[in-house]
């Protein structure tokens, strides 16, 4: 998505070897018009899939997921993050490890909102090591729901998340694919 | 907003004396089309105000705030919640006490995203005791920004949040106003 690439070039901050900060339009301050166009892009890509529900994880996934849900006219569910969680019968629970923050979290989704009849599109802000997607995939399996595809706003192709997904033959579509950070600059994969 | 009242009647769950659970369309699962119409309602009400930014707090405020930002074509900033927070120069920080969860949190906004030139519309999912709004108001003051108004999805008029806001003569607009829960049923204020 050319507009997103341009925005990343303009407003993204490269920190160290593998962190990109986009808190001026996605992760803290949000550009709703860009989010709407991103939702429309995901819809155009996955419109032939029988999607019944969009699944994401709080908090930064919510804005792109809600705009995707708007385009599909389908409900959005966001998994909640917990530092710890005592066993609860009414929740699907999965583990997510954050390499950036070096902390382990649990994420949960109420059993009420995901079932065997659902065809799910995962939407998330970043794909790096794939831990959030793995946690969401785990929850979809627990629900016996069908994972139709994964829509990612920004993918870092040099980290291992993509491999994990490709190995499972899940359709994936990323709006911006970054292959490297060179001298503090973002280098995109050829579109 | 009649549609929201009907949805609350249909899908809301009254828990105990003062808790309303609306996690099937707002707080966990989200109805994006309803969110869009809510954003449009906030826009219609506050369209004459010189709004430059929408401010909310993660996570349940994000969906209505982003749709409000879409209607205004203005950026949205969500305050982050922290269990604790060591002093950081680049953040505005305020305290928020949750009566429901009986926990104290800090919320923060990066100084980059709120300044003296901003005219802010706060959007949040619930107004009960007004603690979240008080924290956001505190942050707006720290930024020397101008608070133009407050848009609330669901207000519980029998709790003290509304009084706190009226005392400060801040324009407030709530899409649904609940005056009581009687026998597990929601009773709305007359519109």
From TrEMBL, chains A, B:
Q: What is its main location?
A: cytoplasm
Q: Which CDD domains match?
A: PRTases_typeI
Q: Does the keyword Ion transport apply?
A: no
Top EC class per UniProt? Answer: transferase
Q: What pathway, per the record? A: Purine metabolism; XMP biosynthesis via salvage pathway; XMP from xanthine: step 1/1
Q: Where is it located?
A: Cytoplasm
| Keyword annotations of the record | Cytoplasm, Glycosyltransferase, Purine salvage, Transferase
Q: Which NCBIfam families match?
A: PRK09219.1, XPRTase
* Record-stated family: Belongs to the purine/pyrimidine phosphoribosyltransferase family. Xpt subfamily.
Partners and quaternary state?
A: Homodimer.
Which protein are we looking at? Xanthine phosphoribosyltransferase
Top-level taxonomy: Bacteria, Bacillati, Bacillota, Bacilli, Lactobacillales
Q: Which gene encodes it?
A: xpt
């Amino acid at each position: 998505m050319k507009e997103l690439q341009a925005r990343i070039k303009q407003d993204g901050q490269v920190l160290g070897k593998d962190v990109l900060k986009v808190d001026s339009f996605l992760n803290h301050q949000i550009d709703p018009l860009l989010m709407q166009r991103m939702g429309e892009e995901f819809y155009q890509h996955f419109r032939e899939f029988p999607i019944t529900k969009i699944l994401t994880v709080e908090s930064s996934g919510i804005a792109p997921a809600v705009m995707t849900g708007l385009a599909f006219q389908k409900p959005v569910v966001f998994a909640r993050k917990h530092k710890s969680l005592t066993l609860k019968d009414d929740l699907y629970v999965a583990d997510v490890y954050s390499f950036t923050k070096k902390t382990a979290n649990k994420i949960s989704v109420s059993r009420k909102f995901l079932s065997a009849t659902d065809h799910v599109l995962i939407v998330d802000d970043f794909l790096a090591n794939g831990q959030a997607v793995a946690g969401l995939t785990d929850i979809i399996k627990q629900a016996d729901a069908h994972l139709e595809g994964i829509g990612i706003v920004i993918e870092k192709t040099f980290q291992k998340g993509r491999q994990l997904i490709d190995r499972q033959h899940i359709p994936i579509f990323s709006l911006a694919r970054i292959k490297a950070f060179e001298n503090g600059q973002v280098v995109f994969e050829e579109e």
